[in-house]
């Protein structure tokens, strides 16, 4: 995958190539400004300026300067993604248990394998069309109006609301509540957790920090997938799935996931709001260039 013109200019220090790439995108010729020319011909800079540029704009991932500037940001993006994926993948991988509890499909023991796959796939498609995809559309439309911070908080509120009044929402006429939860998962942290790490770190470290945050999320997904499988079992050992011990019930498992989301909401406080700000402003590169 080709790099962006921003990366070519700020990291690769190739102003001519960056200018050519921007010209292709904007469909008109981009002149090389004096600042870009300096990147191409660094010998025109006096030695003192070179030292200042290197010390101010070349710190590495494991440096004290990165820790002081972006350490809490990286902790915030990693922890929010970690806690989200515990909750998101738990209920995502085991939707069939939720569907059965709500009454949208029969218990697995009452269907053969083909019927179960068919009914689950049909419901998954319906939920994607009515909740998941519209949730992404709302995020795209409103993320620079509401801001990343408030969007990231939404899933917690609705998951706790569903879990606390679980018996109400499991009535067939009230099952719409679970559609709302899936909507606010995507018009919520399932979108912002992978958007924010791509905006707030310096260009040369952006992919690395995004990868670290994503890896933390996948670790949460593993924990959620295995943990929810056991937690969601019925309290009565006789009603638990074959081969599994008694759990805490689906309702209590959803409450646990709601509080996991709440921890992610607290960690969101470590992440700066990037609404209507450029990548250079968020990463601090703009200040470094003008210093």
From TrEMBL:
SUPFAM superfamilies tied to this protein: MFS general substrate transporter (SSF103473)
One Gene Ontology cellular component annotation held by this UniProt entry: membrane
The UniProt record lists the keyword Transmembrane: yes
Subcellular localization: Membrane
Main location per the UniProt record: membrane
Protein name (Swiss-Prot/TrEMBL): Major facilitator superfamily (MFS) profile domain-containing protein
Molecular-function GO terms, alphabetical: transmembrane transporter activity
Record keywords: Membrane, Transmembrane, Transmembrane helix
Protein's membrane topology: Multi-pass membrane protein
Transmembrane segments: 117-137, 149-166, 178-200, 212-232, 253-271
Keyword match Metal-binding: no
UniProt xrefs under Pfam families: Sugar_tr (PF00083)
């Amino acid at each position: 995958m080709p790099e962006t013109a921003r990366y070519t200019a700020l990291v690769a220090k190739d102003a001519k190539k960056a200018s050519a790439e921007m010209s292709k995108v904007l469909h008109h010729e981009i002149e090389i400004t004096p600042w870009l020319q300096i990147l191409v011909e660094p010998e025109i800079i006096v030695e003192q300026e070179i030292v200042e540029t290197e010390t101010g704009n070349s710190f590495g991932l494991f440096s004290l300067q990165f820790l002081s500037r972006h350490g809490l940001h990286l902790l915030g993006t990693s922890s929010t993604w970690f806690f989200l994926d515990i909750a998101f993948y738990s209920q995502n991988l085991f939707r069939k248990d939720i569907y059965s509890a709500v009454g949208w499909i029969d218990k697995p023991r009452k269907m053969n394998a083909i019927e179960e796959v068919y009914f689950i796939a049909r419901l998954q498609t319906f939920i994607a069309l009515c909740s998941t995809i519209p949730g992404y559309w709302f995020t795209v439309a409103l993320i620079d109006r509401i801001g990343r911070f408030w969007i990231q908080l939404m899933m917690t509120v609705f998951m706790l609301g569903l879990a606390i009044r679980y018996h109400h929402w499991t009535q067939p006429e009230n099952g719409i509540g679970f559609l709302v939860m899936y909507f606010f998962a995507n018009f919520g942290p399932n979108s912002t957790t992978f958007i924010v790490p791509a905006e707030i770190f310096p260009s040369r470290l952006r992919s690395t920090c995004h990868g670290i945050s994503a890896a933390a999320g996948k670790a949460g997904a593993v924990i959620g997938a295995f943990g929810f499988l056991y937690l969601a079992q019925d309290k009565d050992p006789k009603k638990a799935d074959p081969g599994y011990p008694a759990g805490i019930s689906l309702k209590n498992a959803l409450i646990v996931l709601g509080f996991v989301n709440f921890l992610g909401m607290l960690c969101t406080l470590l992440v700066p709001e990037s609404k209507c700000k450029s990548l250079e402003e968020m990463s601090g590169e703009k200040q470094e260039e003008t210093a």
